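Researcher: Following up on the earlier apo prediction. This time include the ligand. It's zinc ion, with the SMILES given after the sequence.
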Amino acid sequence: MRTVAVTRIGSLRDPEEATRGQIGIVDLPDHPLGPEDVRIRVAYAAICGSDPHLAEGYFGTDVPIGLGHEISGVVEALGDAAADRTELAIGDRVAGNFLRFCGTCRPCQDGRQQFCEHLQDYNRPGMAETVTWHASQVYRLPDDVTLLTGCLLEPTAVAVRIADKTRVRVGDRVAICGGGPIGQLALQVMARFGATSLTMIEPIADRREMALRHGAEHVIDPTADDQPARAHEITGGRGYDVVIDASGSPRAVHGLLDLAAHGGTVVYGAMYPADFEMPLNLSDHLYLKELTLTGVFVSPYAFPRALQLLRHLEVEELTQVVYPLEDAPEAFAVHVSGRHPKVVIRCNDLEDGATA
Ligand SMILES: [Zn+2]
Ligand SMILES: [Zn+2]
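Model: Understood. Below is the ligand-bound prediction.
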């Protein structure tokens, strides 16, 4: 089955053609369909901000590395147990979680699925003609959610998980740093949560404007504005109760500590360079301000709620740029250019039975 993959390790932004990371299309064998498995004919797979990190060898350097974890599609085949014990049927429009939580290891039994000891067993690339996942990874899309919107279930689950980690209260002041897809989705989720003074911190003007269209009350351009002064002004000098980093930018992350209110929470909700270390003044930030600092690895227990939210979010702007599978290398070049908030690959031309 044709699969989009990293075919040479390297930065996709490397100006040198000879050393630049490469994206290609490779032919990988289908995974066998186990009794509890579901084979999905993939409709759409969205490019994720983390995919270029895979090209850089963050999770290993043996190429080809198959890509794609933000997918939607149609059920093509079901194992016997999956057919008997789930509501899934052939022809269902679905999306899902690229990770399977095994349910039997100690972390799974202890309410910490994200640290499942078998997390990688079913982590199979979805930017492909088909993908075979365990039934527990697969969610049927509501009738009024299109396949194109459905490929945003996974990033929406990340936004839900970020919201969980903030432990936000209705009325809390909230700032989000980074107006990429996760930041934009987190913004809408936090708006629905009753966030106030909702602020997007983002250097790209288009992304600030997008945030303003979808619930941000304020925007800060960290490259032009006096960020602490603006935050002071917006929050009446108190700071934000919740600060979320969705930028993953080493330049941006330290300054966020100073925007948080006393007793506030800062969620580092992105991936960061493996060798990056952030200075932390324990006296100022943890002793005097009692900040809670936390992060997000993967999204346990978040998919059912993300599925509920999908139809309520304004996500059209994230699905406007679509390339066919064979043009995936070009789609990745467009993704790293940052010209569009999100780039989607059409893996098969499927009829969409959505009622929307
Ligand atoms: Zn992702
Ligand atoms: Zn487990």
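Model: Residues 101-102, 105, 107-108, 116-118 surround zinc ion (ligand 2) (CB under 6 Å).
Researcher: Noted. I'll compare it with the apo version next.
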